[in-house]
Amino acid sequence: MNLLGQPVGLVHYLVVGAVLFACGVVCMAVKRNAVGVLMGIELVLNGANLNFVALGSRFLRADSRLALGLDGQAMALFVIVLAAAEAAVALAIALNYYNTHATIDVDEADQLKG
Amino acid sequence: MAVHWHSFFFWLMAIMACGFALAVVFSNNIVRMAFYLILSLGAVSGLFFLAGADFLGAMQLMIYVGGTVVLLVFGVMLTARRPWVDMQTSGGQWVLAAVVGALLLAVLLQTAFSVPPWQSSAAAAGALPPAAEPTAGPLGLAMVGVRVERMADRPAAESSSGLAGYLLPFEIVSVHLVVVLVGAAYLARARRRLSAAAPARPLEEAPQ
Amino acid sequence: MVDFLAQYLGSVWLAGTLWALVQVVLVLTVVMISVAFFTWLERKESARIQDRLGPTRVGGRFGWLQPVADGLKLLMKEDLIPAAADRVLFRAAPYVSFCAAFTVFVALPVASGWVALRLDAGVFFVLAVAGLEVLGVVLAGYASGSKWSLFGAMREAAQVVSYEVPLALSAVVPVMVAGSIDPVTIGDLQAGGFWNWLVFHDPFTFAAFFVYFTCAVASVNRAPFDLPEAESELVAGFMTEYSGFRWSVFFMAEYASMLAVSFLAAILFLGAWHGPLPLVAGVYAVLGIPAGHPLAIFVAQLAGAGVFLVKGYLGVATMIWLRWTLPRLRIDQVMTMCLKYCLPLSAAMFLGAAVWLYAFPAGVTSQLLGPGAAATEAAGSPPAVAGRTALAEGGR
């Protein structure tokens, strides 16, 4: 098949990263469960990570001197570490919210509503 | 018919990643969302391996799939209500979110397709991709401040500019992690939980 | 090997595919047969420890075919799914654990260069994938629709995730001593006699081995850390509602992960594929066989692979021995052991090993006894030093 015979380039990775990012944004906007919103955040960060790694890879383009090289991977590494830290804090906030409001539904967090 | 296995596995992983991400968006059961997220992030790890970043792929598996998703599942279990409450979003909000998501996707795709040097690939069709260069050692040494993979590129007489590693960000991230985890543990410390029957008047009555 | 096959098959991709399939089939076969052997070994060893005989009827005096009978029985059991179960997750959960447990073997070498996927971050990959089994457990516990399964699953997840930290820290100690995180390189550095094994390199690595083994036993949920599967408390924890083939998939995943952590212990500490004495090299020297001949190398590798398998099996046999000797720990004792004992110990071993390497960079014998002693060693410098200097030069 022609599709499987062609080598994969940078733009394929960027498209996958874009789809993951958009899915994450929609998930953050649509989900009522706070943990569901967190899952959207994870998808967004993974889309961005995929972009970093793809731009840093030496196989994916014709001129490998233009690739970011190790910088792309180091950035993705830091993003992974920081995302884990952020997920811990966000989950702590979600747990706190659940313990004080007896619900995990973010639509019911409207006490500051004017 | 020569199958370019790199492309085959790329398409497999890409379809898994995007498909399960869509399943996360459209699913209503929070635990099934976590399961689909596991599969999607595992496929992204596969994509990292295919791009030559094997240390990063292993790190994604260990920290994201093995750590963050476990954290999310714990969060799901700790905030569970019997019976499992099915929280539906109204149709209007779905339409709005879909429009925003589609616009964002269009912008990102347009950017991706508009840079000509990004379109072609270095690998010759029909050949197996070249063996991955070692990344674990150079990444580790870069974290300690020495960019070994750049040392070969420059003559010895030149100054050592551009060789600075990631020592300062590494230390900052380490301190950041300690601070964040202490803060998260403090925020989520055990307190008496309000029952569902009591009306929610949290700010006055929640014990500190 | 791919180039060798490509000459006969004509195309490189076909040769690559065939070789990948051969490797996958080999790994799966060896691990599956090992798992079946371990079911027999567990029954026999537990029986002998309890002063009885164990299986003696199926397949002769020693019950060799008992695993076959067990497997057939499990396949023929009724396929039950509880009414309150989440059907999709209930069916999928055993396979998540199974895939995680078996993927580990892809990066574990059995002899120098004989590895399905040579990753330069191999040890890290093994630790990462071994920690993914807990996801299958948690999903199984939730999907069973029973609160006892959920309790068992959450306890197991807490235990495995907590013990991953001292496990990784104590696994990093030999990596630091060897100077590489590639298991093939770590194994190659332990050539020669048992005095070159990393476990005898310095007292901190010696202690780190025992911490690693303890954390490995906890990480695969074997007694004395098997509270999540405790028969006397939670029926069978997260596996309560699983029967027949799905239960056997979980069981295979557990034994496979026991074998995987034993293999990793052998690579990191116990000399990988090298025997206690350099017998093969000695035999070659006595018989006058040139050591560079391909067939001689192949036979030496094969012997090394056999030694490696024996070391892994001994590790699993030790875990079985521990299970039937020591009483079970309570969950709070398990967490206390991790956070108050194993974690500080592994951190102290890490620090101690780093200080030792700083104080004796060329190895203790050559540093204390002077350069003359170093010259009498078989290799010019201790193998671990060679690894670290190679790392400084090339980043490999």
Task: Give a structural overview.
The complex is a heterotrimer of chains A (114), B (208) and C (396). Chain A is mostly helical and 114 residues long. Chain A has a single domain (8-103), classed as Helix Hairpins (Orthogonal Bundle), CATH 1.10.287. Chain A has helices at residues 2-5, 10-30, 34-56, 70-101. Chain A starts with a helix and ends in a 13-residue tail after the last helix. Chain B is an all-alpha fold. Chain B has eight helices and no strands. In chain B, helix 1 packs antiparallel against helix 2 (30-50) and helix 2 (30-50) packs antiparallel against helix 3 (54-78). The termini of chain B are far apart. Residues 196-208 of chain B have low confidence and may be disordered. Chain C folds into two domains: 1-76, no CATH class; 82-359, no CATH class. Chain C has 17 helices and no strands. Residues 372-383 and 390-396 of chain C have low confidence and may be disordered. The chains are: A mainly alpha (114), B mainly alpha (208), C mainly alpha (396). Chains A and B meet through helix 1, helix 2, helix 3 and helix 4 of A and helix 1, helix 2, helix 3, helix 4 and helix 5 of B.
- Shape descriptor of chain C: globular
What percent of residues of chain C are in strands? under 5%
Portion of residues within helices of chain C: 55-70%
Beta-strand residue fraction of chain B: under 5%
Radius of gyration of chain C: 23 Å
Would you list the SSEs of chain C in sequence order as H and E? Answer: HHHHHHHHHHHHHHHHH
Uncertain segments of chain B are 196-208
Tell me, briefly, the overall form of chain B.
globular
The whole-number mean of residue pLDDT values of chain C reads: 85
CATH architecture descriptor text of the domain at 1-84 in chain B: Up-down Bundle
Whole-Å distance between the termini of chain B? 69 Å
Oligomer: heterotrimer
Radius of gyration of chain B: 24 Å
Class of secondary structure makeup of chain C: mainly alpha
Query: What is the H level of CATH, i.e. the homologous superfamily of the domain at 1-84 in chain B?
Result: NADH-ubiquinone/plastoquinone oxidoreductase chain 6, subunit NuoJ
Most extensive chain-chain interface: A-B, 88 and 107 residues
Question: Which class best fits the helix and strand makeup of chain B?
Answer: mainly alpha
Count of alpha and pi helical runs of chain B = 8
CATH topology title of the domain at 1-84 in chain B:
Four Helix Bundle (Hemerythrin (Met), subunit A)
Binned, the helix content of chain B reads 55-70%
